[in-house]
Amino acid sequence: GIQVKFMQNYKVLHKxxxxxxxxxxxxGSSNLTMAGMGISNESNVRIQDPIVAGQAAxxxxxxxxxAKPLSELKY
Length: 75
Prior knowledge:
Strand content: 15-25%
Radius of gyration: 14 Å
Oligomer: single chain
Shape: globular
Distance between the termini: 26 Å
Strand order of the largest sheet: 1-2-3
């Protein structure tokens, strides 16, 4: 039930962002993998602010609107 979409418009999209709820956002450099979260030397920050959380959710929705499923990508 998960839909994977791709960003073809960008050469690099490197955001690491987790919007938890209407108040909490995690931002950082960690890849969301076992190595990125447990082995690598990375840094993340938790922000608890409804304005920042809303802005992050808006940014995610904007990116989701321009992302495409694999079947629509042009090579």
